[in-house]
């Protein structure tokens, strides 16, 4: 099947291209390269387009002859969204509406959406199941919850079939070291820890050591980016004969900040200096998913489930590409 992949030059989208191809699909990337890297798209066709340009998006959708869209393109930093909410509402909500309108005009009815565990805010308990109330605490989380609501309305009014996948913490890289995370600035823990191991930053900051968790640091559910990518392909295929769906995408097991740093020390064999500081406002103590629904309904299982595998693959990528995609040149 031909599939348009918005944001396919970004971290998660580029790994999805590989999974789509190995399942026999033909991805075409729509990306403005504002954050992504053309090198990450490999042999897939790349249409350089800003989703704000609805007329061009519509034309490119028609030319692609795609039957479905995977929508990764978004602005994706919680911290930045607090500073610049307007950027987030326009890029994540308004541009998604433009994309959905262009898809309706082009007669495309299948849609896989990158949602996020930030829609849950600070949950009362863990593990989190999909029926927990949505209570996002940041503009970023609110944009994801808003799009989920829009998708529900489009499904009942216009027959859109969608999958909303609420990822927990995407991490890891292509096991052969050919593809990985390259964000500037980087805000995710595992690449930051690895940069410290490589001496590319002085130390890693731990924000809060007095949380009600066993070692006092925040607990998150790290899921390998290829396991996320495979869930996208399973959801896409299920939409052929199933109604819309919303799933958590996590491993169902949490690791604390200190555990991640310890495991990274073991994997890299390097010293990783740390600095302990105060909590950051709005950081939930623990976010751990229940992945039971997607396991039961789509038969999804994590294949690279251990923290060690996640960090090993990330280490392979970052140690061979210390400057990300620019390393090659
Ligand atoms: N990385 C995570 O841990 C995580 C967790 C939960 C949800 N998500 C969601 O998954 C998706 C992908 O995340 P990522 O980490 O790969 O982000 P990323 O920044 O690496 O990739 C996003 C891509 O979208 C492109 N893009 C952004 N705005 C665009 C526009 N207006 N027009 C065209 N292209 C545009 C960027 O150039 C980039 O290539 C995002 O929707 C994000 O919110 C990510």
Please name the CATH topology of the largest domain.
Rossmann fold
- Going across the biggest sheet, name each strand in turn: 3-2-1-4-5-6-11
Class of the largest domain, according to the CATH hierarchy? Alpha Beta
The portion of residues forming beta strands comes to 15-25%
Rounded Rg: 19 Å
Low-confidence stretches: none
CATH architecture descriptor text of the largest domain = 3-Layer(aba) Sandwich
Main sheet properties? 7 strands, parallel
Bound molecules: nicotinamide-adenine-dinucleotide
**Number of helical segments with 4 or more residues:** 10
Please report the total strand number as a whole number.
Answer: 14
Query: Considering DSSP H and I runs of 4 or more, what fraction of the residues is helical?
Result: 25-40%
Textual characterization of the structure:
This protein has about 325 residues and is an alpha/beta fold. It has two domains: about 1-170 and about 225-250, Rossmann fold; about 190-220 and about 250-325, UDP-galactose 4-epimerase, domain 1 (Alpha-Beta Complex). The chain is about 40% helix and about 20% strand. The chain is built from ten helices and 14 strands. It has helices at about 10-20, 55-65, 80-85, 85-105, 140-160, 190-195, 225-240, 255-270, 290-300, 305-320, and strands spanning about 1-5, 25-30, 45-50, 70, 110-115, 160-165, 170, 205, 220, 220-225, 245-250, 255, 275, 285. The protein has a seven-stranded parallel sheet, sandwiched between helices. It has a three-stranded mixed sheet with strand order 12-9-14. The longest helix has 22 residues, at about 85-105. It is globular and about 55 Å long. The relative contact order is 0.15. The mean pLDDT is about 95. Bound molecules: nicotinamide-adenine-dinucleotide (NAD). Nicotinamide-adenine-dinucleotide binds near residues 7, 73, 116, 167 and 170.
């Amino acid at each position: 099947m031909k599939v348009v992949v918005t944001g396919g030059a970004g971290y998660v989208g580029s790994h999805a291209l590989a999974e789509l191809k190995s399942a026999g699909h033909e991805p075409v990337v729509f990306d403005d390269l504002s954050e992504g890297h053309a090198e990450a798209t490999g042999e897939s066709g790349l249409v350089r387009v800003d989703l704000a340009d609805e007329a061009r998006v519509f034309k490119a959708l028609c030319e692609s002859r795609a039957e479905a869209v995977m929508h990764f393109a978004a602005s994706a930093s919680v911290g930045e969204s607090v500073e610049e909410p307007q950027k987030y509402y326009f890029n994540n909500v308004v541009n998604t509406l433009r994309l959905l309108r262009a898809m309706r005009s082009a007669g495309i009815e299948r849609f896989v959406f990158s949602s996020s565990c930030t829609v849950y805010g600070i949950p009362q308990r863990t593990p989190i199941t999909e029926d927990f109330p949505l209570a996002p605490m940041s503009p970023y989380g609110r944009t994801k919850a808003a799009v989920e609501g829009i998708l529900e309305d489009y499904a009942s009014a216009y027959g859109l079939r969608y999958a909303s996948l609420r990822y927990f913490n995407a991490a890891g890289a292509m096991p052969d070291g050919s593809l990985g995370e390259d964000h500037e600035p980087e805000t995710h823990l595992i690449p930051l820890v690895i940069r410290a191991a490589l001496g590319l930053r002085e130390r890693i900051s731990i924000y809060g050591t007095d949380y009600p968790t066993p070692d006092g640091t925040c607990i998150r559910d790290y899921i390998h980016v290829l396991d996320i990518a495979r869930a996208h392909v399973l959801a896409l295929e299920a939409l052929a004969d199933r109604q819309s769906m919303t799933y958590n995408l996590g491993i169902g097991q949490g690791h604390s900040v200190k555990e991640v740093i310890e495991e990274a020390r073991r994997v890299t064999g390097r010293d990783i200096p740390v600095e302990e500081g105060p909590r950051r406002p709005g950081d939930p103590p623990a976010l751990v998913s229940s992945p039971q629904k997607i396991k039961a309904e789509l038969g999804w299982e994590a294949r690279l489930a251990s923290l060690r595998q996640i960090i090993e693959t990330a280490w392979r990528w970052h140690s061979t590409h210390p400057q990300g995609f620019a390393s090659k040149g």
